Amino acid sequence: MRFSLAALALANAVTVLAAPQVDPGRFSCGAPEPSAEHVAISQAFAKDEAMAIANGTVTKRAVTTIDVYFHVVASSTAASGGYLSDALLNAQLDALNAAYAPHQYQFVLKGIDRTVNAAWAVDGNGNELTMKKALRKGTYRSLNVYYLKDMGSNLGYCYFPTTATAGSTTYIRDGCTVLYSTVPGGTLANYNKGHTTTHEVGHWLGLYHTFQGGCTGSGDSVSDTPAQASASSGCPVGRDSCPSQAGVDPIHNYMDYSYDTCYEEFTPGQKARMDSYWAAYRAGK
Ligand SMILES: [Ca+2]
Ligand SMILES: [Zn+2]
Q: Residue 65 in contact with residue 140, Cβ under 8 Å?
């Protein structure tokens, strides 16, 4: 992860003063570093998933349908203020569905709302919970995505599934915050095919970055994503940042940091992990 939660808060505190622009050459995700406890849960899932494969007892799932609420939080009603149109948001939904359809996840758009609030439209200045208290819809199995005008140096962040009591801070905070210009047809070059949202929703479904943990140890706790020393940038075909480990870097994986046009897949192991987290933490909630 590029940012710990504390570092993220600090970076964003600086953002308020300096307002650095996103480096268009670089993807950057602000999802929090998974806790040791969360990694232990992923490791336990990994064991169960491997055993199910070995025993031939993998549960065949029907399509999982996920209700989605898109919240546009803009600084003005101008397109340049982040005021996304229905057409752009529908294109975003299509991109998300195209990425997840091979893994039996379907996203159904339940609502779009738009808020013009210059303070809320800038991430990291202490308004996250207030904004989400006002806007969040559905339950813990519903996906809420907040499209903001200004995310500082990040393109997005999202929270991992965990135990969350309705009404708690953890519950209210749940969801994804994404830079408005990353939607298909958006203005952010190289990252405007909608897959920042695809990447962030991967976190929401329990996935870590493919470069989590670097070359050694349990990495991202998924056995079929090759170990990776650090995030990729662009589309570096053949990159092999852990030469002593099997496989080249998974640069085409949605959980790396590649260009949108370079992203192609989740692995069967990641699909199994999303299913494990969904069943344990979000289904029926
Ligand atoms: Ca791995
Ligand atoms: Zn990420």
A: no
Which residue type occupies 77? Answer: T
Banded pLDDT at 23 (limits 50, 70, 90): low
Which of 270, 125, 136, 148 shows the shortest CA–CA distance to 210?
Answer: 270
This prediction's pTM: 0.91
3-state helix, strand, coil in the chain (%, to 5): 35, 15, 50
In angstroms, rounded to a whole number, what is the distance separating the alpha carbons of residues 125 and 115? Answer: 17
Pick the catalytic residue: 37, 49, 128, 200?
Answer: 200
Beta-bridge partners for 136: none
CB–CB of 270/255 below 8 Å? yes
Residue 90 CA to ligand 2 center (angstroms) comes to 23
Tokens of 274: 């999303």
* Distance from C-alpha of 139 to C-alpha of 250, rounded to nearest angstrom: 33
CB of 148 closer than 8 Å to CB of 134: no
Q: What is the mean pLDDT of residues 228-255?
A: 96
Average pLDDT for 46-68: 92
Q: Distance from the CA of 20 to the center of ligand 1, in angstroms?
A: 33
Within a 10 A sphere around the Cβ of 13, how many other Cβ atoms?
14
Rounded-to-integer distance, Cα 217 and Cα 245, Å: 11
Residue length, the chain?
285
Residue pointed to by tokens 């599934």: 161
User: Ligand 2 centroid vs 254 CA: distance in angstroms?
Assistant: 9
pLDDT at position 284, please?
A: 87
Q: Can you point out the beta strands (E) in the chain?
A: 64-74, 105-116, 143-148, 156-158, 176-179
Tokens of 220: 């991202």
Indicate the pairing of strand 105-116 with strand 176-179.
Answer: unpaired
Q: Respond yes or no: is residue 49 known to be catalytic.
A: no
